[in-house]
Amino acid sequence: MILDQIIITKKTQSKGLEEIRGSEKPLRSVVKALSWRVIGTLDTLVVSYFLTGKIVLAASIASVDFLTKLVLYFFHERIWNKVKWGK
C-alpha cells in the first residue's frame, strides 16, 4: 500500500503541469487543426470540382473552406480542452 502511494506520487511529480491537467498546449491544437484542414480541404476541392466541373471555382471554395474551418476547429479544440467530462 505504501509502495503504491510512493509510485503514484513519483509518477505525478514527473509529469508536467499541463499533462496532469489533461490539457493540450495551444500550439498542439494549431498543428492538429492544420493537419485536419489539409485533409478536409482536399476533400472539399474534389467534391467542389465534381459538382462544378471548374477547377478555379473548386479551388476558391476550398480556400475559403480551409480558412473558416481552421479557425472554427481551433476554438472548438480549446473549448473542449476545458471540458472535464470524459477525462
Key structural traits:
87 residues, 4 helices, mainly alpha
Poorly predicted tracts of residues = none
Structural class, by secondary structure, is: mainly alpha
User: Roughly how many Å apart are the termini?
Assistant: 25 Å
Mean pLDDT: 82
Number of strands: 0
Instruction: Work out the helix count.
Output: 4
Give the % helix: over 70%
**Major sheet:** none
Large-scale geometry: elongated
Global Rg? 20 Å
Amount of beta strand: under 5%
String of helices and strands: HHHH
Please describe what this structure looks like.
It is built from four helices and no strands. The protein has 87 residues and is mostly helical. Helix 3 (26-52) runs antiparallel to helix 4 (55-82). The chain is elongated. It starts with a helix and ends in a 5-residue tail after the last helix.
Quick description:
By secondary structure, the chain is mainly alpha-helical.
Please render the helix and strand layout as text:
Blueprint: H1 2-14, H2 17-21, H3 26-52, H4 55-82
Helix pairs in contact: 3-4
